[in-house]
Amino acid sequence: MNALAPIKKGYAQGTSGRRFESFEARGSRFNLADDHPAIVEGRTIMPKRVFAPTEVKRILVSGKNSRKIGDRVARGRWAGAPIFTLTLEERATCPRTCAEWKTCYGSNMNWAKRIAHGPEFESMLWAELEAKQAAHPAGFVVRLHVLGDFYSVAYAELWGEAMAAFPALRVFGYTAHAPDSEIGRIIGRLNERHADRFAYRFSGLDEPERGSVVIEPGADTPHTVCLAQRSLTNAAGDKKAECCATCALCWQSPRTIAFWRH
Ligand code: SF4
After folding, report:
1. pLDDT per residue over 32-61, tens digit each?
2. Which letter does DSSP use for residue 198 in this model?
3. Cβ neighbours of residue 72 under 8 Å, at least 6 residues apart?
4. Helix (DSSP H) and strand (DSSP E) numbers for the chain
5. What is the DSSP string of 157-178?
6. Quick check: CB of 85 below 6 Å from ligand 1?
7. Residue whose CA is closest, atom 1 of ligand 1?
8. How far apart are CA 197 and CA 168, in angstroms?
9. 120-150 burial, b for 16+ CB within 10 Å, e for fewer?
10. Which CA distances in Å does 107 have to 17, 26, 224?
């Protein structure tokens, strides 16, 4: 089978937002209408960019493929560790309470390969984590959910089991689950239990620590603005352009991070 062949998920392949008149830009980001099928059905607007786990070479992808992430941690307590990313399907794996449900930046990420979630994904993910543990016993980082989120209690608990099974594993990311939700409490416990290896923030939590908020570019905020966004937006040719690998703030500190809407 073609490694890039899209999976069929029961909804129309190639659905185009252009059919929906209320599909409008909000800044440079799409703001889907309430009746857009992707909003109603809870899924990406790009079903052709969702792949079965068996249709991709790997589930965990090197951060070198992302200018914002970077391939190896350059500073701080995770220095030297390679970084890998995991991308799931936006909305299909996310809580409907997400504040960016209609404005998800996934709608602008035509190139992103989303891995279809479920039991097959979970068993292949586990096998890849085992291989990474063997290949990088001194440490490796997974930036969870470039798109998507913890889609079930069992899946969140799987990450807890992985943290216990793979001592080299380090994780960072952001979730739309509320801290007091069932999944949010699991994530909070992982933050506490593995404070040196698990660094997760709650999207929309506008408090000094453990939150991440979205603000308009340049808006005042008491929080630290993501250094990668600032340096990438500043100017082409910025010699000090940061990425997560060189910044490290998200796992060095619990401080809330502000992201510019883009
Ligand atoms: S603040 Fe630093 S570590 Fe966090 S997302 Fe931005 S660049 Fe990455």
Report:
1. 999 999 999 999 999 999 999 999 999 999
2. E
3. 63, 80, 81, 82, 83, 245
4. 7, 12
5. HHHHHHHHH-TTEEEEEEE-S-
6. no
7. 226
8. 9
9. ebbebbeebbeebbeebeebbbbbbbbbbbb
10. 10, 12, 26
Say how many C-beta atoms besides its own lie within 10 A of residue 14's C-beta. Answer: 8
Contact 206, 179 (CB under 8 A): no
Residue ranges of domains in the chain = 17-206
Euclidean distance between CA atoms 197 and 141, whole angstroms: 9
Strand 50-51 to 114-115 pairing: parallel
CB of residue 247 inside a 6 A radius of ligand 1: yes
Give the C-alpha separation, 65 to 77, whole Å.
Answer: 23
Mutate to test the pocket of ligand 1, among 73, 223, 249, 255 (most ligand atoms within 8 A of CB): 249
- How many angstroms separate the CA atoms of 120 and 197, rounded? 26
* Both structure tokens of 31: 């703001």
Per-residue pLDDT of 198-247, as tens digits, reads 999 999 999 999 999 999 888 999 999 998 888 766 655 555 668 999 99
Q: Give, for 3, the enclosing helix (H) or strand (E).
A: none
Which atom of ligand 1 is nearest the CA belonging to 243? 7
Select from 110, 128, 109 the least CA-distant residue to 57. 128
How many residues appear in the chain? 262
